Amino acid sequence: MNLLPILIISDLQIKLPLDGLAKRKPLPSLSEKRVTAKVRESLKQKFNYKHVKVACKTQLKKGQWKGRGYYKGKKFNWIVK
Prior knowledge:
Blueprint: E1 6-9, E2 14-17, H1 32-46, E3 52-54, E4 59-61, E5 64-71, E6 74-80
Antiparallel strand pairs: 1-2, 1-6, 3-5, 4-5, 5-6
């Protein structure tokens, strides 16, 4: 049984399961575009659409995706593991 990937944003004290991500492929095999799109979609559902921006540039390190974004103009870093 596969565990759902979790989006973690320490700066905002958020831990969100990313349902539907890595359902067919392991997390490290997913494209940067797919991971970023899911992070953006999940945050825009949780918060107001106009207040969230997620950068398209991410890094895969040790099986975890890492990126950054902005919420109400304040920068945050995120991890999907």
